[in-house]
C-alpha cells in the first residue's frame, strides 16, 4: 500500500512596495523577475504607495497575502512607513534605495546606485536584525500619535530646515535644495525651551536650537553627526545643539565636520580632538522624554510630522529584519 503524497510546500514569494514618484516600475520589474526565478521564488506581487498611504496599508496587504519578504523601493519616508508595519513580524525588509536621502542604506553600508545588486541581495542575501526607534507625540490640541523611525527624530532647527525646503527644488537638485532652507532656519532666533528626562534620570531644564535623537549616525555626504550610533546596539544617541553666537556655530562645525569626519578616523587624530564643548552635547540612552514650553516642529527620517508640545521616544532592540549582502 503506497503512502499518500504530501502536499508540496507553498512557493515563497516577495512583495514590492514602491513609491511611483521615486521608482520606475517598468525598470524594476525585469530585474526582479530574473532574480526571483534564479532563487526559485514564486511570482512577486506589487503594491503602489499613494499620498494617502505612504506604505503602511500596502505593507499590511502584502503581509496578509502571505509574502515571505517585502522589498521597499522608495525614499526614506517609504522605508519608514514599511518598517513601521513590519516591526516584530520577523519578515525581512529589502531595500532598493531611491530618492535623495537613503539614510538607512547609507548607515548599513548598502549599495546605493546598483539596482541589480540591491535585488540580488533581496533574494540571495542574509538577514540582519536592527533596532527601531518609536516615538509618541502629543500635539497642541491634545491629540496623540505614535510613529516609528529608523534613522533620526529632530526638533527645532532640524525640523524647521525641512519645513522650509522647496519640494520641487529637492526633486530637481537633491540636497542642494536644502541650502536656502538652512540659511532661513539659521535666521530664526527662537530657541527650544524644554524639560528632558533620559531613561530613569532626573528631569533637566534645557534650552537649545536643535535636539536630534538617532538610531543611526551618518547623514548625506558622509557627515557623521552621531559618531557612536549603531543600528543594532539597543541605544538611542542624542545630540543637543546650543550655540551662543558665531563662535558656537564654529565649534559645532569643527566637531561634526572636522573631528567626526576626519580626526576620528585615526588613532593620532582622536588624540587631537578637543573634547566636549558647550555648544554641542552628546548623550545615550534607551528612552527620552521631552516637554516643550510651546509647540515645535518635529521631523522623522527627513519628513515633517507637524508640531508637538511633548514627546517620548524609545528604542526597540532587534525589532526589524533587513536583508544584507
Automatic annotation (TrEMBL):
PROSITE patterns: DAGK (PS50146). SUPFAM superfamilies: NAD kinase/diacylglycerol kinase-like. GO terms for biological process: phospholipid biosynthetic process. Gene3D superfamilies: 2.60.200.40, Probable inorganic polyphosphate/atp-NAD kinase, domain 1 (3.40.50.10330). Pfam families: DAGK_cat (PF00781), YegS_C (PF19279). Belongs to the diacylglycerol/lipid kinase family. Its cofactor is Mg(2+). Residues 9-139 form the DAGKc domain. The keyword Transmembrane helix does not apply. GO terms for molecular function: ATP binding; kinase activity. This is Diacylglycerol kinase. Keywords: ATP-binding, Kinase, Lipid biosynthesis, Lipid metabolism, Nucleotide-binding, Phospholipid biosynthesis, Phospholipid metabolism, Transferase.
Amino acid at each position: 500500500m503506497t503512502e499518500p503524497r504530501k502536499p508540496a510546500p507553498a512557493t515563497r514569494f516577495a512583495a514590492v512596495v514602491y513609491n511611483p514618484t521615486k521608482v520606475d516600475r517598468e525598470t524594476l520589474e525585469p530585474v526582479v523577475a530574473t532574480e526571483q526565478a534564479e532563487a526559485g521564488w514564486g511570482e512577486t506581487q506589487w503594491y503602489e504607495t499613494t499620498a494617502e498611504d505612504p506604505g503602511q496599508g500596502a505593507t499590511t496587504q502584502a503581509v496578509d497575502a502571505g509574502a515571505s519578504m517585502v522589498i521597499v523601493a522608495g525614499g526614506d519616508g517609504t522605508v519608514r512607513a514599511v518598517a513601521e508595519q513590519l516591526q516584530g513580524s520577523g519578515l525581512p525588509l529589502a531595500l532598493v534605495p531611491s530618492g535623495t536621502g537613503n539614510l538607512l542604506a547609507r548607515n548599513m553600508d548598502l549599495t546605493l546606485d546598483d539596482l541589480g545588486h540591491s535585488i540580488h541581495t533581496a533574494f540571495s542575501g542574509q538577514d540582519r536584525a536592527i533596532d527601531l526607534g518609536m516615538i509618541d507625540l502629543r500635539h497642541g490640541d491634545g491629540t496623540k500619535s505614535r510613529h516609528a523611525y529608523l534613522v533620526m527624530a529632530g526638533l527645532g532647527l532640524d525640523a524647521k530646515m525641512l519645513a522650509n525646503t522647496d519640494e520641487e527644488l529637492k526633486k530637481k537638485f537633491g540636497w542642494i535644495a536644502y541650502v536656502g532652507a538652512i540659511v532661513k532656519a539659521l535666521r530664526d532666533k527662537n530657541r527650544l525651551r524644554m524639560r528632558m528626562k533620559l531613561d530613569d534620570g532626573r528631569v533637566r531644564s534645557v534650552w537649545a536650537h536643535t535636539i536630534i535623537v538617532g538610531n543611526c549616525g551618518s547623514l548625506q555626504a558622509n557627515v557623521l553627526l552621531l559618531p557612536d550610533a549603531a543600528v543594532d546596539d539597543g541605544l538611542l544617541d542624542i545630540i543637543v545643539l546650543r550655540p551662543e553666537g558665531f563662535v558656537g556655530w564654529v565649534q559645532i562645525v569643527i566637531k561634526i565636520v572636522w573631528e567626526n569626519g576626519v580626526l576620528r578616523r585615526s588613532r593620532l587624530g582622536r588624540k587631537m580632538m578637543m573634547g566636549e564643548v558647550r555648544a554641542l552635547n552628546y548623550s545615550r540612552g534607551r528612552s527620552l522624554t521631552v516637554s516643550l514650553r510651546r509647540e515645535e516642529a518635529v521631523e522623522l527620517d527627513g519628513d515633517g510630522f507637524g508640531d508637538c508640545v511633548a514627546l517620548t521616544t524609545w528604542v526597540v532592540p532587534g525589532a526589524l529584519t533587513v536583508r544584507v549582502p
